[in-house]
Amino acid sequence: SSDFILNSSIWLNQIYFSQATLIYSYIDYRLFIVSQFRWLISLCTLANDTLSDELIYFYSNTFVSKNLQPRESIEQRANATMVQFRISTPRTFLRILDSIRSIAQGNGIVSSTMSNWYFFALNRNIEYDSIWSQSRFYGKYNDCSCATNAMCTSQATINGYIVPGFRVGCYALEALLQSTLECLYNITCINVLKNMYYFSNITFRPLDLLVSSPNDTVQTLIKKLMIVQWETNINYDQYYSSCAPLQCIYFIYERISLMYSITTIVGLFGGLTVLLKIFAPILAKILRKIQIYHRQQHIVMAMAIFEEQQQQNNND
């Protein structure tokens, strides 16, 4: 934050003058400066509060998945969520601001500094004369009426000195939104504002050119929630540790090619050939022995039958 926000009370006291509305013309920036800086401080505070509230809600969300997700999936989900958060959060802030603007413009609320309407009596000699109202005019050619356009503005000046970037208009807020903060980047311009009523040794540092551009309007800044750069930290290792899986199971699906099938079949036949070479002689010997054994059994049985028949013949 800048000195104008951190030391806002000191800055506002420095630029405040209670008789400003009675002395200065409606197009003099001294009539607007306090209101505009109060609005600027309020917008910064509101933007910060909105972001804090949205972050609390964002951190309350929990990601639940049945299985452990890979790094690429987590990073894609996180990036998509952050993009959505960056889009939706400024919208919340702008809805609040637009509501305030709509109420003021829709109801034709008269500014406390009489910057949009002023009242006068046609005959001041009459004690109870009627009060008439007249709209203010702004613009390069003084042709924009606050009666028909609440966004009319003109270049801000102080005794002929053009205040770079700032504008005056029907409403202090509308003029501020169309203004840039160019003056606050220039120490000379800051000193003009600081010392326009009385000299002060208090110093206020200019805004940093490396942080934001002096050409951006306040409207542009608040559309970005006054955030210069978003930073995202996606920690997959922390996600993995939080899940703490007891075991991991994975499957590898491969499509068998024709060449693989052919080589497998050839290899199978080759293995069978080797086995046959080893066991074929053994099987042949076993079969040969079985065959000899059966032949011997047949011979023995035939001789036994023959001897039995011979014995019967002798007995007869």
Walkthrough of the structure:
- It is a single chain.
- The protein is mainly alpha-helical and 316 residues long.
- The chain folds into two domains: 3-113 and 148-243, no CATH class; 266-316.
- It is built from ten helices and six strands; from the N terminus they run αααααββββββααααα.
- It has helices at 3-6, 8-15, 20-23, 33-59, 71-106, 172-177, 187-194, 218-223, 236-243, 258-315, and strands at 117-121, 131-135, 137-138, 144-145, 153-158, 161-169.
- A two-stranded antiparallel sheet has the order 1-2. A two-stranded antiparallel ribbon has the order 3-4.
- A hairpin with a 5-residue loop joins strand 3 (137-138) and strand 4.
- The chain is rod-shaped and about 185 Å long.
- The N and C termini lie far apart (142 Å).
Write the layout of secondary structure elements.
Elements: H1 3-6, H2 8-15, H3 20-23, H4 33-59, H5 71-106, E1 117-121, E2 131-135, E3 137-138, E4 144-145, E5 153-158, E6 161-169, H6 172-177, H7 187-194, H8 218-223, H9 236-243, H10 258-315
Antiparallel strand pairs: 1-2, 3-4, 5-6
Helix pairs in contact: 4-5
